[in-house]
Task: structure prediction
Amino acid sequence: MNILDEIRNRAVAPTVAPREDVLAPQQQGSSTPDVDVTSTADSSVSELTKLEEQLANFPEIAPRVPVRLEVAIKQELDELCNLEKITVETLLEAFYVTCQDKDTVMKQVLKEAKKRLKSRKEAGNIRSSITRLANLAKKLK
Result:
């Protein structure tokens, strides 16, 4: 038997008797309990309103911000967050709020941030130069 015959044989599927729909309403002996739909809907709406009011008391959360970190620092932050059962985002918020109240700490943090930014820009320039040189070498071959 060739492959085409095998495919044709598989295409002939056995027929199955149709089954009864278990979700269809049954006519005999089915009594549905009388539920006041309007009172249930009203209580759901009032509960929804109450929850929306509670949510309005919390600060609005911005969309996720992709943050690129040094590998070693990222690993340490992940370990700390796992240990304390918090997220990196909430840790960053807490760092900011804590530093915001302390001018000397904030100045120290900003000084470190500017130093790191300068270092990253330098590393980026080096990577860019490497890429340009590598592309130039490919063109000259």
